[in-house]
Specification:
Strand order of the largest sheet: 8-9-10-7-11-12-13-14
Distance between the termini: 47 Å
Shape: globular
Number of strands: 14
Oligomer: single chain
Bound molecules: NADP nicotinamide-adenine-dinucleotide phosphate
Strand content: 25-35%
Order of helices and strands: EHEHEHEHEHEHEHEEEEEEEHH
Radius of gyration: 20 Å
Number of domains: 2
Length: 326
């Protein structure tokens, strides 16, 4: 068995817990060290996941020579700074979505990773789960014919969150687009590519972030209708239609193991048995890339992350959502 890939985690909030629960299920790696701005939080987290090394600051994790790759699970406004510091210390990176606030920041992060010849990937975990792989295979094999329409949404009730929360605070890169609207945009861009035109309209909160947003993308012969919101709950399904059939991703589509393929003469459903919650598949992809000495994933490349943030920048321009980092 080859040597285990040694992971560190920076920023020990909600997503770091879910990610760590999945990471310990993956056989060819281990969680070696964790770091928080708060030493007590780091200690409790390390105990929960059986990790020997914990730090009450991030610099010690950057400097830990036993760690190969750091999963950045800090808030949106800190991704850029934390990723660049870690890369300068020679670390490979898996960074939570959105990779950063705007295209300027994403370009700087990509340039830095290229300069230091380390691996960098945005944690768009949906891309790697077996159900989503199946969707891409069906489309590639022509099962639904020429693509004409994508519909995807992502909503939950978040109006009870404080104005200072990561959802509503502009300084924290808040807003539904960067938090959850990124998933519908990711779906449209991975199956349809770069649109010819973008139209967006938002309901803006008192704090200046989008609390709900609608986006219409038009391509040569197809369209995507996308939506995200913090203002209500919704049973989130995604639909992909071609001239010869339809694919439905069951609720919540971005993490669902349940698919339906409908064609003129037949229709069938398929359910996948996920390992853990599904973060395992992006972890396996990163481990594989590191073992092959690759500096990016061909399944979710740095150019694809850059294209995605460019779309989000344009949507924000049209809806007047401006961050201090812009
Ligand atoms: N891929 C996904 O499914 C998914 C889901 C949710 C969020 N995310 C992304 O993950 C990132 C973090 O989101 P999150 O939901 O984990 O946010 P969160 O729970 O608010 O945690 C954010 C940061 O706050 C600090 N923190 C944690 N508990 C704290 C406490 N009790 N008091 C003060 N600070 C505390 C942590 O850093 P320190 O420990 O260093 O202080 C943590 O990194 C965001 O970029 C978000 O977009 C991804």
């Amino acid at each position: 068995m080859p040597a285990l890939i040694k992971w560190g985690i920076l920023g020990l909030g909600k997503i770091a817990h879910k990610f760590a629960s999945d990471l310990i299920l993956v056989e060819d790696c281990e969680l070696t060290a964790v770091a928080s701005s708060n030493e007590d939080r780091a200690k409790v987290f390390a105990k929960e996941f059986g990790v020997n090394t914990f730090y009450g600051d991030y610099e010690s994790l950057y400097a830990d020579n036993s760690v190969k790759i750091i999963y950045i699970a800090s808030l949106n406004q800190n991704h850029h700074g934390h990723v660049i510091e870690a890369i300068k210390n020679g670390k490979s990176i898996l960074c939570e979505k959105p990779l950063a606030i705007n295209q300027r920041q994403v370009k700087e992060m990509i340039d830095c990773a290229k300069k230091h010849k380390v691996f960098l990937m945005e944690g768009l975990w949906t891309r790697f789960n077996p159900a989503f792989e199946q969707v891409l295979q069906w489309i590639d094999r022509g099962e639904i014919g020429k693509l004409r329409y994508v519909n995807a949404t992502f909503s939950f009730y978040g109006l009870d969150k404080e104005f200072d929360s990561r959802l509503f605070n502009l300084k924290k890169g808040g807003g539904s687009l960067l938090d959850i609207g990124i998933y519908p945009l990711f779906l449209a861009s991975i199956v349809m590519g770069k649109p010819n035109s973008i139209k967006a309209s938002a309901v803006v909160s008192e704090t200046g972030v989008d609390e709900q947003i609608g986006i219409l993308l038009t391509y040569d012969k197809s369209q995507a209708i996308l939506y995200s919101s913090f203002s209500h709950h919704e049973n989130m399904r995604a639909t992909i239609c071609g001239e010869a059939g339809e694919i439905y991703l069951d609720s919540r589509w971005h993490e669902s193991p349940n698919l339906k393929l409908v064609k003129k003469e037949e229709s069938f459903e398929k359910t996948f048995d996920f390992l853990g919650k599904g973060y395992t598949y992006e972890i396996l992809e990163v481990n594989q890339c590191l073992r092959n000495n690759e500096t990016e994933s061909s399944k979710w490349s740095l150019q694809q992350s850059l294209n995605l943030v460019k779309l989000m920048d344009e949507v924000r321009k049209q809806t007047g959502i401006l961050y201090p980092m812009d």
